[in-house]
Amino acid sequence: MELPFAESYKIKMVEPIYKSTREQRKEWIKQANYNLFNLRSEQVFIDLLTDSGTGAMSQNQWAAIMTGDESYAGSSSYYHLKDAIKNILGFDYFLPTHQGRAAENVLFSVLVKEDDVVPGNSHFDTTKGHIEYRKASAVDCTIDEAFDTESLHPFKGNLDLNKLEAVYSTHPAEQIPMVIVTLTCNTSGGQPVSMQNLRDVHTLSKKYGIKVVFDSARFAENAWFIQQREDEYRNSTIKEIVAEMFSYADAMTMSSKKDGIVNIGGFIAMKDEELLKQASVFNIMFEGFNTYGGMAGRDMNALAVGLDEVTTGYYLENRIQQVAYLGNKLIEWGIPVQKPIGGHAVFVDAKKFLGHVPKEEYIAQTLAIELYLEAGVRGVEVGTLLADRDPKTRENRYPKLEMLRLAIPRRTYTNNHMDVVAVALKNIFDRREEIDHGYRIKKEAPIMRHFSVELEHAEKGRKK
């Protein structure tokens, strides 16, 4: 008999979590104005809101924290991280920041100006926010297969080269500061980009003189999918694949809270020293001196170890196996999800799950609230709320995909927790016709509204 899969680590410390009642959760979500971001952590049983900064660090990372150098300038921890970035990712220059959106803010302050056009593959919410805040436009060039949740295309994060060239050929190069390739592509379902596509995007971009920038939050998960799904790389190590991936980028931003396996931190890395000099001005203004940016020395130490661990040994198999475990359980029960299962999260197709709820009533948010009420599980809407309003018309943008994202923290929950999530969704699926309304907005911010939006039951605003 073949031995079953088991995690290649054991648990050394545990954190208690509280099991609430449905009545408690009903009152808590009402007090939170039906926005799951507003819940207190102790009001959540299983927290799948994000995998960003919520994972468990290894014993080697904790040991590295104890040797952090907190010198304001010239910290040895900075040089440990600099060496890791050079050796693993191949970039000569980098600037530490406190997280990924800070890296975007610094880099885009150099590169993006009003009326610019920034193509990419389903830009992440903060990426699009930083672009549109500067009165530029983000253009989605993702392949069409990404928007068919039943398609089994192995690389749904790929950019459509025809769409990309259409952007390049209809705008002057000086109006296109970069193309952004998100690895893996979060907004389309944690879907990977193939090595061939990275190579082709690089070749096309160099033809038009456009910079290639990777949003690299989940670069290691992307490398794992390349190893598993591209025959040419079956026998390559993750480190070898990562090195080739980044050979096709001029610069990168990183939210280290994902594939850095740390609780805080980020960075910008680049191959051009002149870009480093320009970005340094904004990094010092927004983040801190260049050898610490927005990070403590101890966190830079932990990140240097994390970048090595995420590209070595057992980590990726354990990580992606658990995400697949939850996804396959939902598929088995007929619950519609984005296929194939992505690297960091399971994305439930809310339109197919709650198709009778009007799109104006925020279908994915409605499903997220139902899941919290059912079992105290917190997910996040990746749909109309996140898509925000058109900056010119101020009308809602209705994306092709309306998803409930269940992002799984790294090395944090067991498969028993995944079973609870799966059964909770099955219970809701079985009674889905009873959910006869969604929600409407009471109050919202002018940009990236999903973080702070206040909602109420839509039935209150319906005409009798």
UniProtKB/TrEMBL annotation:
Xref: Pfam families: Beta_elim_lyase (PF01212)
The organism's place on the tree of life at top rank: Bacteria
Keyword Lyase among UniProt keywords: yes
GO biological process: aromatic amino acid metabolic process
Boundaries of every Aromatic amino acid beta-eliminating lyase/threonine aldolase domain copy: 47-423
Matches recorded under InterPro entries: ArAA_b-elim_lyase/Thr_aldolase (IPR001597), Beta-eliminating_lyase (IPR011166), PyrdxlP-dep_Trfase (IPR015424), PyrdxlP-dep_Trfase_major (IPR015421), PyrdxlP-dep_Trfase_small (IPR015422)
GO MF annotation: an example: carbon-carbon lyase activity
Cofactor: pyridoxal 5'-phosphate
Record keywords, A-Z: Lyase, Pyridoxal phosphate
The keyword Lyase belongs to this UniProt entry's keyword annotation: yes
Residues bearing the modification N6-(pyridoxal phosphate)lysine: K258
Entry's family note: Belongs to the beta-eliminating lyase family.
Protein name per its UniProtKB record: Tryptophanase
